[in-house]
Amino acid sequence: MFEPPTLKDIATALGLSTSTVSRALRDTYEISAKTKKLVLEYAEKINYQPNPNALSLKERRSKSIGVVVSEVANHYFSQAINGIESIAYARGYHVIITQTHESYAREKINIQHLASRSVDGLLVSLSAETNDLHHLKELHDRGMPMVFFDRVPESIHTHKITANNEQGAFDATEHLIKSGCRKIAHLTSSAQLSISIERLRGYKAALNKHDIKVNPDYIKHCPHGGMFPEETEQAVLELLNLKDKPDAIFIAGDRLSIGCLEVLKKLDIKVPEEITLAGFSNSDVLNLFEYPLSSVRQPAFEMGKTATEMLLQLIESKYPVTEFEDRVIDTNLFIRD
């Protein structure tokens, strides 16, 4: 079993007391420059690292934050995590990343595990299945610093960071209308997710602006956001089997876009000749497809950075924070011809 080197190991090897070694490593004035140099050089030689558990007991901080996302492989979340790490590591915090795979049960287990590891705070993006927020409210009420990003709850009063989903969805839908489409379907994720609600609102607003009636048959929810291919396939087939078929689909997510393209390719339906697509996607993979798919890009890296800055402000505040911010960052529509 691996045993990392300790203060005692350094003290024994150098014939010093553990308190002298500890003070030398902390660079206190009581220790001579010669002794400090001796201790620091030996500590580096044996790759000594301070015990984080001992530090957390002393400082009442673990210098780590927990991150809860649906899936690291999702292009949006991988970019957001890069943003999270860029701030956290620069400020001396470790990042522990967990995935829910859109499961409420997995989200609960992950949150409990992170809390038991004594993380200093949590960055959370809700799973597609999450309706009950009790596991998060309980921790929040007990004083756990918590910031939500991308998929956020209404009922927990803390900092929240989102993209301008409604405007992004409006822009993508209006682009389809201006391209000549009138029968525009909407393929989206779980109905209770904040991103689904906001993107549906933007889709409807664009249709209303251009005097196009909203057809409920054209709106399809995939409860797990395209994580299961059969879920996406069923939704796309239902749209294509309608008597009055749509001439375009606005798709509300990365996985759903790729899943929809796969179904259309399998059915040999040509894009955009037979159906036009627009989506929400942070994936550069779409550039490689033979099918042109205009997409709304979220500022994922910036959202991760901002959420982390907000969380560290909560963690390091000397006084209880009572004023919170709902920050919304603009999206960009990338048009692919």
UniProtKB/TrEMBL annotation:
Cited CDD domains: HTH_LacI, PBP1_LacI_sugar_binding-like
Residues making up the signal peptide according to the UniProt record: none
Residue span, HTH lacI-type domain: 5-59
UniProt-listed InterPro entries: HTH_LacI, LacI/GalR-like_sensor, Lambda_DNA-bd_dom_sf, Peripla_BP_I
Molecular-function annotations in GO: DNA-binding transcription factor activity; transcription cis-regulatory region binding
Keywords, alphabetical: DNA-binding, Transcription, Transcription regulation
One Pfam entry name: Peripla_BP_3
Annotated PANTHER family: HTH-TYPE TRANSCRIPTIONAL REGULATOR GALS (PTHR30146:SF109), LACI-RELATED TRANSCRIPTIONAL REPRESSOR (PTHR30146)
Protein name as catalogued: Transcriptional regulator, LacI family
Organism field: Pedobacter nyackensis
